[in-house]
Amino acid sequence: MATHSPPFSTRLRLAAVAAAALLSLSVAGCGGSEPSGTPVAAAVSDSGQPGSSDEATASDDASPAAIAETAAYLQVDLGKLSREQQATKVPTLSVRARGSLVANVGPIMQVRVNGAVIGTVEVRNADTWQDYSFSAPALKAGAKVDVVFDNDAYVNGVDRNLYVSAISDGRTLVLPNTPIVKLDQGSGAKAFDGLEVVPGRSELWSNGALRTTWPSTATVTDAVRLRRQDASRFLMQTTFGPTAASITQLTKQTYASWVSAQMALPVTDSFVAAVQTRYDRGPTFRPNGAQYSPYEVSRAFWVTSHEAPDQLRRRVAYALHQIFMVSQADSNLYHHSRAYARYLDLLNQHSFGNFRTLLEEMALSPAMGIYLSHMRNRKEDPAADRLPDENFAREVMQLFTIGLYELNPDGSVVRDAQGQPIETYNNADVMALAKVFTGFSWAFPNNQLTEQKFRWGWPEYSASGDTRIDILPMKAYPGQHSTAAKTLFAGKRWAVSMPAGGSAQDDLKAALDALFRHPNVGPFIGRQLIQKLVTSNPSPAYVARVSAVFNNNGQGVRGDLGAVVRAILLDTEARGMPTANFGKLREPVLRITQWRRAFNATSIDGSYNISWHIAPAGQRPFEAPSVFGDFRPGYIPPNSSFAARGATAPEFQIVNENTVAGWVNLAESMGSGGLGWSNNQREINADYSALTKRLKAGQVAGMLDDLDHWLFGSTMSAELRQIIIDAISGVQGNDDASQLNRARMAVFVAMASPEFLIQR
Asked: 397: exposed, middle or buried (C-beta count within 10 Å: 0-12, 13-18, 19+)?
């Protein structure tokens, strides 16, 4: 195996398997017809060997209240679970092996515990691994375990060999090529004389015995294990990815208290601060300078998504960005990176605030004004045959507030007597609302609000002339606003009329109030937030519960986003046992943030110039191709089980043969060390020392459990665990570099798997 990369044949096979499996998900549904992994309440193998960084001390960390909360959510009888596990314990030792045959005779494998033979078998499977199980009543920590090969032969150019992938008792897993295993070479008694001893390996090309002292397993109670599993899943929904520390911390408190603590963290304007820091480096770093870059905001995103303590706020803000879309792919925003940064900071500021306030901030955002062309929007002029620009007017209804069709509180479409969907607005509404959004432009001082400034004025970005008007809300200019009478939603019970002669400020307030009060907003926005945080196709009942909280937070307040987020995350559908059709496809950006947080992948120079590297996977932060974003919330993959049941799966809109292959290649890069390129080396490098420490200590099950917690929300299937074991057992060598290569291979296989791509 190459130092940083799996063999090409392995990569090719995994790429083909991943591509086929991922594309098949659009036919089978999220995760297929059955849950992709072990149910959250089920027992999994302990990582529990001494020296475990997490599990060995987990029983001291989980609070009784937190454990009780998890058990209640999942309706688990912890006492019954423990009793059933005790009743089904069988002292069994399993050896996963294959062999090459000579003269139609396979290698004879003998297994001993403390010198006593517990089983002998001929291994005849040459091409695939097979598990051979033996009753082992004497097996316990400290027992001497030997796997013996004693019929080596070489006939007519064919060699009889024994290959051992792993040895397991169902809880502890040992690879033959880890430091705790030695190979005593020789036949008969010589295989146990301790004279010709070499490091253990999976390939036995000559007679000998793989010898190890069976490691101990730390005790982790069922209750604590259950809590850790569910905590990692909760953090998948609420952060940019769990870490070992965040999982442990969450086991000490209830989810409700964690959400409250996150919402209480102070708001920081990190995006504007990042851009300003770059501007302050000198004139060449400002717009029109040779070193200017509009992508300082994406660099700030990679930094804050990894490091910021207010993970929930920022994860919700990222979801809101995908609703209130402004994309830097628009070249008109190229010189306005600070205005764009302010737009992002506003999303952070109002993630837990009131939707009505956020709606107005978005309407008056200069970045939004440029992107949807209502900045400098001129009032109608019949003589010049001029009408106001309708772009923002249309999108603020279709995408930001009420959608195309009237909705019931549960998100289902309201239909007329003929069974047709009832439209929320018509062209007259668009034209009226377009007039509302006339007369707004850059926030120059009040004594400069002239028509000249309205039409042609631009912010001054030089250090001496910079007044930072790009981070201020747009202002209404005298004489530039349409004073015509305006009516929205004529004939509806939520209709509103704005009399002729109204000011820009009064018309704006009336129009935004009308949109905010529309009954569609709760289910329309609530469902999208559920999709982006928890599951792609929430049940109508789930949407209805969230919509009810949007309408009234319990204290008579409408539009409380903090209450809405809390309701989404603590809902029984979010916290209960995931069903076969529950979950969402992780979008590429969130896969990368999760990898970075799991393995503390940091940049060597802070540049985070990785957009070119991740683009083949189908997504880059803040560079969606249109106002509809990277994918639409109502997207249903055609010719699939989703289509058959009318289930939405938005992220599948960017899944195709190219993006699947692009992701597998990206997973290989991340597995082999990192992303990007700077000064002839990887720019963002992962830290796999925790995994290699496990492997060097023989804690293979612990390493798999870490991957499960950090990447899968504890839903990794037994099948995938075995695929990873088989992959890493084929990595030759026993030194530190070999253990690192095994860790890299494990990460690559895990992240290239369809299971990782589905958040449950």
From this structure: buried
Q: Which candidate, 218, 170, 217, 228, places its Cα nearest to that of 41?
A: 228
pTM (predicted TM-score): 0.88
The count of other CB atoms within 10 Å of the CB of residue 180 is 18
The Cα–Cα gap between 57 and 224 comes to 10
Report the distance separating Cα 172 and Cα 176, nearest Å.
13
Q: Which is nearest to 595 in space by CA: 295, 348, 318, 236?
A: 236
Q: How is residue 375 annotated by DSSP?
A: T
Residue 676 phi/psi, 5° resolution?
A: 70, 180
Residues 6+ away with beta carbon under 8 Å from 487: 428, 432, 495, 496, 497, 498
> Comparing 59-73, 310-324, 561-575, 704-718, which segment has the lowest mean pLDDT?
59-73
Helices 270-279, 337-349: crossing angle, 10 deg rounding: 160
CA atoms within 13 Å, Cβ hemisphere of 669: 23
Element (H, E) at 85: helix 78-88
Judging by DSSP bridges, how do beta strands 208-213 and 154-155 pair with one another? unpaired
Calpha distance 255→210 (Å, rounded): 47
Distance between CA atoms of residues 199 and 204, nearest Å: 12
Q: Supply the DSSP symbol for 560.
A: B
Average pLDDT over residues 727-747: 93
